[in-house]
Amino acid sequence: MHYFYLVFFAFFFQSCRENSDISGPRHPHGIIPAPAFFQPSGEEKSNIRQLKICLPENFGPTGYLQQLSKAVAQLTWTADCSSSNVILVHEDSLLSESYRLAVEKDSVRISYADDRGLQYALTSLIQMAEFGDFPLRMCTIQDRPSFSYRGMHLDVARHFFSVEDVKKYLDFMAFYKFNHFHWHLTDDQGWRIEIKKYPKLTETGAWRKETLVGHYNDEPVRYDGQKYGGFYTQGEIREIVKYAADRNITVVPEIEMPGHALAALASYPELGCSGGPYEVATTWGVFTDVFCPTEATFTFLEGVIDEVVTLFPGKYIHIGGDECPKESWKKSAFCQQLIKSRGLKDVYALQSYFITRMEKYINTKGRQIIGWDEILEGGLAPNATVMSWRGNEGGIEAAMTGHEAIMTPGSHCYFDHYQSEGPEEPLAIGGFTSLEKVYGWNPVPESLNAEQRNFIIGGQANVWTEYIRTYDRVEYMAYARAMAMSEVLWGTNSNYQDFLDRFDIHHLYWQKTGANVAYHLLDLKPQFLSGDGKGVRVKFTAPEGTVINYVINGQEEKKAKPGEEIVIDRSVNYTFQAKRGERTGRKISFNFDLHLGTQAIIQIDPPPSSKYFGNGPASLVNGVNGRNDSYSGVEWLGFEGTDAVITLDFQKNVTLNQVLLRFFKAEGQWIYLPPLIELYTSPDGVSFSKYTSISNIGAYEKIGDILFNLGGANTRFLKIHAHNYGVIPDGRQGAGHRAWLFIDEIAVR
Question: Does CATH place domain 522-592 in 2.60.120?
Answer without folding.
Answer: no
